[in-house]
Design a protein that fits this description.
single chain; D-Maltodextrin-Binding Protein, domain 2; six-stranded mixed β-sheet; five-stranded mixed β-sheet; prephenate dehydratase activity
Amino acid sequence: MTKRIAFQGELGAYSHQACHETYPEMEALPCRTFEDAMEAVRSGEAELAMLPVENSTFGRVADIHHLLPQSGLHIIGEAFVRVHINLLALPGTALDTVERAMSHTMLLGQCRAFLEANGIHRVTGADTAGSARHVAEQDDPTLAALASELAGEIYGLDVLARHIEDEGNNTTRFLVMSQTPDYTRRGEDGMMTSFVFQVRNIPAALYKAMGGFATNGVNMTKLESYMVGGSFSATQFYADIEGHPEDPAVKRALDELDYFTSDITMLGVYPADPGRH
C-alpha cells in the first residue's frame, strides 16, 4: 500500500512540489488547512505532513508556530524548495495574447517586473494551484496563471515563460511532521533540534537562558517569540539549533536553558537538509 504525505493546498501547490521532490514515492494528500494536514497524520490517514514554516522573501508562515506545539506531532525532517514562478496558459496560447495573470497576491508581487514589461494586469486568486485550475477551466486565452510547473502539468497548461520571479533566491523551508519522533538518525549535513520554551519570570531570564548556547559554541539558527493565549505577559519562544541533544555541547546548553525556563517542549531532532548550506 502506497504511503501518503499530507499538505495544505490544492494539487500543484508549492507544498505539493515539496512533497513530490522530497518523497517522490509517496502519494500526496491535499488538505484544506494546516490543521487538516496535521489531523490526517494523527488519524493515520497519512504517514507524514509537509508544512511550510518560512520563506526567504516574506518571513514566517502565519499560524504555524502556534500550531506545532499543540499538534502532538514531531519534526523528523526539513526541506528547502526554490519557488520558481511560471506563466501558465491554455495550450497554444501566445505570450502576447495574455492580458491578465491570476495568482496569490504574494506571487503577483514577486513578478512585478515581468508583468509590467509585458503589459499584463494582475488578478488576485485564492492560491497558486487554484488559479492554474481556474485558468484551465476557462475558455479564455487572455487569462493566465502564475504557478509551479507541476501545476501546469496537472491542469494541462502550457508554460509561456519560466522563472519570471524578480528575486532569484526565493526559497521556502518546510518541516516534515510524523506521529513518532526519531532521534536515532545522524545526517551527513549535520543535525537540527527544534523546541519551544517559556522563560521564568525573573530579570534578564532570556539573556541568561541564551548564555548556555554561546558559551558552549552551539549555533542557534532561529529564535522567534509569540504571545501565548492572547496574553501580553505570556511569551513563548521557538528555537532551532544546530546539533543533536546527545552532543555534549548541546546537552550542556539545554541543561542551562532548563534552569532558566518554566517549560521546554521538544518539537523534533532531524537531519539538516543539504539546501540549508
